[in-house]
Write a structure and sequence with these properties.
The protein is of the alpha/beta class and 293 residues long. The protein has 2 domains: 9-172, Alpha-Beta Horseshoe (Leucine-rich repeat, LRR (right-handed beta-alpha superhelix)), CATH 3.80.10; 195-241, no CATH class. 12% of the residues lie in helices and 16% in strands. It contains 5 helices and 14 strands. Strand 9 (232-233) and strand 10 (240-241) form a beta hairpin. Residues 40-126 form the Disease resistance R13L4/SHOC-2-like LRR domain. This is Leucine-rich repeat protein SHOC-2.
């Protein structure tokens, strides 16, 4: 196969390729590549990693079950479309694409998204409808440029805690088994925390004090810092806690509360974490305990 090495756009769609043609690794100036409608089962990582100027990659309608970690070499990539494949997950390395602003992965077998998804700081459109996703990672709340999220037709029950931090304008979430607001009165007895949890909460209170001796000493203990970095904050009292103690839900209005212009669900369930049953039993909040069937 002869290909002009100066090509910037190449359409190889609707052929019978089972892998990316090796000759493509010589196209150093290639910007857009269409490989839709082939029989791709794997992606040659050497060829894929050589196209470092690529900004657009269309792999729709193939037989892919995974993407290679070398996808992270496509540092110029802005649009990636892998709809209608058999992908079960994304490699965490996909979150190392600094310029990616549109990701299309509808009609796959995805069960989750990478925990590191928050590193895709330029992502503005995410299409993941018709998959098998049961939970969205908390890192989604760090996507401060995400304007469109299509997660229709999945297995989602609840949205992550920091939904209010995402500047969504369009949210499509129909055909999910989302939690519904059916309140049942319940008062829980206050719990006994583990010694590890008690110590962690004490330390996290101390580090807020700039004059605290613990605040100055903790910088010498890497393991402790890493442990405390996993802490959450109570939605009622705002205190920090280490282990997920009580998972709750609040029902927010997509338009009024989240400022979303287009959403087919006027009210959506958003995850909330509480530090204790004391906070759960307190009055004046709108959080509900979660009971899964």
């Amino acid at each position: 196969m002869y290909i002009n090495a100066q090509l910037e756009v190449l359409n190889l769609g609707n052929n019978d390729f089972e892998d990316i043609p090796v000759v493509l690794q010589h196209l150093k100036k290639l910007l857009k590549l269409h490989l839709f409608g082939n029989a791709l089962k794997n992606l040659n990582s050497n060829v894929l990693g050589s196209m470092q100027q690529l900004t657009f990659l269309n792999l729709n309608n193939n037989l892919l079950t995974e993407l290679p970690p070398e996808i992270s070499r496509l540092e110029a990539l802005q649009v990636l479309s892998v709809c209608n494949n058999q992908l079960q997950n994304f490699p965490s390395q996909i979150c190392n694409l600094p310029k990616l602003h549109e990701l299309r992965a509808s009609h796959n077998e995805l069960e989750s998204l990478p925990l590191e998804i928050g590193f895709l700081q330029n992502l503005s459109k995410l299409y993941i409808s018709q998959n098998k996703i049961k939970e969205l990672p908390e890192g989604l709340g760090k996507l401060r440029k995400l304007h469109l999220l299509d997660i229709a037709g999945n297995e989602l029950r609840i949205f992550p805690t920091e939904m209010h931090n995402i500047p969504l304008k369009e949210l499509y979430c129909e055909a999910n088994p989302l939690l519904e607001e059916v309140p049942v009165h319940s008062v829980q007895e206050e719990e006994i925390l583990s010694l590890k949890e008690l110590c962690a909460r004490l330390v996290m209170k101390e580090v807020k004090d700039k004059s605290s001796n613990i605040r100055h000493r903790i910088r010498y203990f890497k393991g402790v810092r890493e442990l405390l970095s996993q802490a959450s904050r109570c939605s009622v009292c705002s205190d920090a806690f280490l282990n997920t103690w009580l998972e709750c839900v609040r029902f927010v209005k997509a338009g009024k509360d989240l400022k979303i212009n287009k959403c087919n669900n006027p009210v959506i369930p958003v995850r909330a974490l509480l530090c204790s049953y004391k906070c759960f039993n307190s009055e004046g909040h709108s959080f509900y305990g979660v009971a899964f069937p």
